[in-house]
Amino acid sequence: MATVTGLFKRLLLGRARRSEELGETLLPKRLALPVFASDPLSSVAYATQEILLVLTLGGLAYVYVTPYLAAGVIGLMTVVVLSYRQVVYAYPSGGGSYEVVSTNLGPSAGLVVAAALLVDYVMTVAVSVASGVDNVISALPALAGHRVLLALCFVALLTAMNLRGVRESGRAFAAPTYLFVGAVLIMVGTGLIRYLMGDAPVAESARYGVEPTPGSAQLTGLALVMLVLRAFSSGCTALTGVEAISNGVPAFRRPKPRNAAATLAAMGAIAVAMFAGVTTLAIVAKVHIVQDPCRLIGLADCAGYTQRTVIAQLASSVFGGSSSVGFFVVQAATALVLILAANTAFNGFPLLASILAQDRYLPTQLHSRGDRLVYSNGILVLAVVAGALLFGFKADVTSLIHLYILGVFTSFTLSQTGMVRHWNRALRTDPDPARRRRCRLARVVNAAGALVTGLVLVIVLATKFLEGAWLAVLAAVVLWLMMRAIRRHYDAVAAELTVTDPRADLTPPPRVLALVLVSDVHKPTLRALAYARAFHPDRLQALTVDADRAATARLEEQWARLDTDIPLTVIDSPYREITGPVVEYVRHARRTSPRDVVGVFIPEYVVGRWWENLLHNQTALWLKSRLLFTPGVMVTSVPWQLTSSAHVRPTVRGAGAVRRGVPATGYGIRRPPRGARPGGGPGPGGGAPTPDRSP
Prior knowledge:
The longest helix is centred in the C-terminal third of the chain and has 65 residues, at 433-497. The radius of gyration is 33 Å and the shape is elongated. Helix content is 61%, strand content 7%. Residues 652-666 and 676-695 have low confidence and may be disordered. The chain has helices at residues 2-13, 29-42, 44-55, 66-90, 96-105, 107-139, 147-163, 166-196, 221-235, 244-247, 256-284, 310-319, 325-340, 342-358, 376-392, 397-401, 406-429, 433-497, 502-506, 523-534, 549-562, 579-592, 610-615, 618-627, 657-660, and strands at residues 209-210, 296-297, 512-517, 539-546, 568-572, 597-606, 633-641, 669-670, 690-691.
């Protein structure tokens, strides 16, 4: 079973990589763009749609506001991209917003950003995959009944690809991302050329009117302002994922900050061009899209009507119908890039979780790299949580979108505020006039970013809180509290384990009592007795529990024939319990001699089949679980390998192993320091080898 599992893992993920190969996984700009920017690029596919879905709540009367809202989103994106370029240069270690805020505003504020970003990364996967599935269904409506299954399969595929490595996932995802960018730009260019030539494309929904929702036909004053602000906040989904590059600077080739900043600028320019083009083309083609198809006036059968996405309607109108090659190319590229947009989160989430684990705010396992030099534990956690969200919300974009973008703007606002303090501190210490001018300009950019994104954060909270954003806020608060609790735990453990008096801690106990648990006189028992005797304890005795009078009598007869000087102690157990009497006996020995150490040796079978574990070692498992909580007690398992375990034992590379084709394990022995001697002290002759712990 272990061999089959290992073979499957290698086929799925590839061979394990040595730590020295980490430099080979670094990304050039052409691969970093699809890896870290697929989310903001792909959000072009639904950002315009989200604006129109909100505005059409009041019918078609308010669609004229669309260009102004799009201009606001473009301006906001420009400010955010410029602001994060400052972050990339000032904090290139990969902490991004978390590091900026923790350094300049304090650890608690940094945890707020971290919690918000972790929640938002999960939402990125859920929304991107759900939106991608929507576009698949737009091209193939027969798959509408399998929405959730498709979404979960796509999450599993993304997980497997990212577990193979950052560079490998970049190569796999580069072509779909660049295909999407090219397809959308060609579609926009073709549509606008047709418009300028007097042959404007017309969307399939242009012939339908839109019935306003009750009470929204004649909105004025505050109600109209709230509708417009809600549409603007929905359009701000175009900014999701912009911060991922600042978190992923360590993954770039050298010079890391310059390459990351160039990639960020390219991403911003491409995203702005695509978003502006799609929005303009949607207005030209008169796309009418609503949350409930039954509000479309002129539609014969709304119950059986599958509403196409904005991108699908534009591709159909520009390229001559839903059976054209151009339509299927755009839809295939859109579906692929929306699903692959989750890759931004699959890179950002593990990196951020690793930094938080290094700072002891998350379990330390999240800081460990897997076989392929990626943070595999973080990837798996993200996949499980996002999959649960997709299953719980039935992979519905409209339901999930309300939980989205809140974390992004929390991160934007606090990080830009932190950068303002960073530049203020730099201005107080830097006397060079040229650098001071650059600092002042950068401070203006970051201050503008903090002001604008803070305003958007307030808008998002006001317009989306009751529609479901409160769940994202609650999740971030719970995560923030959990991370603080984890840090308190690690701090308490570190304080408890700190050595204050080395001599006292190294003083051996005055006496050692060794207890060997015995149930029968057989080979495992004799091995445990011999092993315990090798420790030269002050006292050595065998211990058994009288749960069965006849079995105990046979054991005592066998022990007498064994003719050993080790005494056999029999503990009475009138209720036929094993664990309780042994634990009580050990605790009594500790109470009698508190300064002594008790060593308990437990013979155990080593089996090769999973079901054999159910037949053996259950008593030993319960005993160890109880004894480990008893101070001053050392528990030692003495294994006895049964024949069935032979096929899972590790192969030992002996003399001639290379000629016989025995594979290397990848582990080696480090050369001892020159001049070291056995025992670690200086002097001639070398020293004891230290095992190489490189993965």
